[in-house]
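call fold(seq) -> tokens
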Amino acid sequence: MEKVGYMGIAGSFSEVAAGKLLELAGMTEAELVPLVCSQNILDALRAGEIAYGVLGIRNTTAGPVSEFVEAFQDVEYEVLGEYILPIHHCLFKKSGIAEEALTEVASHPQAFGQTIHTRAARWPQLAEHEIEDTAIGAEFLAKGELPDTAAVICSIRAGQMWGLDLIAQNIEDSTENRTTFWLLRLTGQNN
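ret:
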């Protein structure tokens, strides 16, 4: 069974895109491996721990995914599939915490770029706290690894998986917010 690494963890947008890409490629027996970030995927590809990677490469609102660009800039790879996923961000908090008590919002830099105007208009008091993945933010908040006064930006699925309270949904600045994901494998000698 082929292993396919993807950015993020269960509940991430990348997990959804990975499932769609594998379906489109007819890879029904593949095992999805959550690897959180582009560099981890590249390292696992180079080590032979996974055969393929699924990575977000660009977003219609926030532009290129910088972590992909940085990790794969001098790497030879073959793109086997592309999937464009509509991205709808939600803001969640811990149960029992008043919205007025929130002091920060944690999420991936791409999510911050995709929600900057909405957040400035609705929650200007919330300081940004960058983390590696949107779904990890939901996990961290639920497990107490973020302050109780933090909110997180993630998918509806991730927030619900971790039992968080929904403050607002569809907080992306553009209704046409989409991320392009690639299914790829390494090629060449420089890998």
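The chain has a mean pLDDT of 96.
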